[in-house]
Amino acid sequence: MKKVLITGFIVAISLLIIPLGSLSVEEKTVQTLAKNAVAQKTVSKDTKEKSDITFRIKTENGIKELSAREYICGVLAAEMPASFNIEALKAQSVAAFTFALYKKEEKRYDEYDLTDNFKTDQSYISEEKQKEKWGDGFEEKSKKISEAVESTLGTYLSYNGKPALALYCSLSSGKTNSCADVFGGEIPYLVSVDSEGDKLCPDYKSVFSFSIDELKAKLSSINAGPEGDNFFKNIKTANSGLVKALDYGGKSTTGGKISNLLGLPSSAFTVELSDGAYTFTCFGRGHGVGMSQYGAEFLAKSGADYKEILLHYYPGTEIKKL
Fold this sequence. Notes:
Elements: H1 27-35, H2 45-49, E1 54-59, E2 62-67, H3 68-79, H4 86-106, E3 114-115, H5 127-134, H6 138-150, E4 155-159, E5 162-163, E6 168-169, H7 179-183, E7 205-211, H8 212-218, E8 232-237, E9 243-248, E10 251-253, H9 255-262, E11 269-274, E12 277-283, E13 291-292, H10 293-301, H11 306-313, E14 318-321
Parallel strand pairs: 1-3, 6-13
Antiparallel strand pairs: 1-2, 4-5, 4-14, 7-12, 8-9, 9-10, 11-12
């Protein structure tokens, strides 16, 4: 859940982002959840009674049925640096497990529960690929991730009695984005919260410049007709700095579309014209909704435990155990 880029209604994503923390969810997912956010619904009996819950994961090599332990370890290995504080890793473990539970109960797919693709679900890598990724550091990193997963296995975030849609991202602009601002559907626990620690990340700020010709070529699908010196007008932003809407060449569009077409790491940006080039200054990486992974790391280093981290980024949820 590296670049959290979302299709349909929940395209972002921005993520979603470097591979870290990226996660993408289709429009139907958010629409359904938004409509039923206040519905009293319990975790299904089947899920609740299975202490040995498994997930069917679609990979490039076919469908694998994995234990929750093996799957969540593989998600952490793919989604968050093993060098992170153990409490941040625990928070990621719970978020990943909650997301998987949500998708399993949603039953969107017939033959499997989730894919290993961050563009539609969340990333997962096998133990074999973990060894390739970490080399000589495999034993140490694997042990740390296993510790985080073992200590939180079966723990999930609940909202009104059901698993929450625990979206997460790499890092925010200093404030996370609300689901409503990014994807258009209000979800009570996916609202904007402070994430000041993100500003300390080396990747927090990035700058991209495009000549006028480059800009026109990359944004040609918008089918606008830029005239004069200022192609961008009426820029509307959220309190997080996310560009919600703007006019390009007199045609209304969204910050997310501009970001995707230009290959920017997030939709929280400013734009300036100088010396015949448009310069975009971006803040954060990914869609910025839900838990910020770098924000979680900052809170953990500041003394917060994984429960405090989760309740900060998903306000109104409860932490429960299967």
